[in-house]
Amino acid sequence: MKNSPKKKLTPLPKLLKKAQEKFNAHVRERDKDFGCISCGAEVQQAGHYHSQGQHSGLRFGLPDSLAYYNTNGQCIRCNMFLSGNLIRYRLGLVSRYGEDFVKELEEYALENPLKKWTRSELEEIINYYK
Ligand SMILES: [Zn+2]
User: Fold this and answer.
1) Among candidates 28, 60, 49, 63, which has minimal Cα distance to 103?
2) Stretch 97-118: mean pLDDT, rounded?
3) With 128 labelled, which of 18, 19, 54, 66 sits at a CA distance of 20 to 30 A?
């Protein structure tokens, strides 16, 4: 037995989940007055344009990142029942951020499908969106 037990580190999947929760809550608050990006209904959830499973680098990010705008307030109907309602999602992105930005986001997603988040990156997200 060790005499001075080290502080146990939070497992990475738990940090990932926490970062996602904090970021999503921020997006819901950020977008509440704009309505669902796809249909304009009341914002109930944070919905991804490029899915977090296939584009883990776009699942969350600080305000200076492209990922920050890959997630927007959505209603449950669009996010859950219409699988993101992505055609209207894109139209919403264009009207909110402009066509050039949406193309930049799409090119980034194609070139950077997966990202392994490090502990310090996740902690930075969690601390930022506290
Ligand atoms: Zn909607």
Assistant:
1) 49
2) 95
3) 54
For residue 3, what pLDDT band results from cuts at 50, 70 and 90? Answer: low
Determine the distance separating the centroid of ligand 1 and the alpha carbon of 36, expressed in angstroms.
5
- Contacts of residues 65-71 at CB distance under 8 Å and 24 or more positions apart, as own/partner, are 66/104, 66/105, 66/108, 69/93, 69/97, 69/101, 69/105, 70/105, 70/109, 71/23, 71/24, 71/27, 71/46, 71/47
User: How far away, in angstroms, is 118 Cα from ligand 1 center?
Assistant: 33
- Which DSSP helix (H) or strand (E) runs through 18? helix 12-31
- Between the CA of 95 and the centroid of ligand 1 the distance, in Å, is 15
CA of 111 to the centre of ligand 1 (A): 28
pLDDT at 6 over 80: no
Predicted model pTM: 0.91
Between the CA of 45 and the centroid of ligand 1 the distance, in Å, is 10
Taking the centre of ligand 1 as the mean of its atom positions, its distance from the CA of residue 38, in whole angstroms, is 5
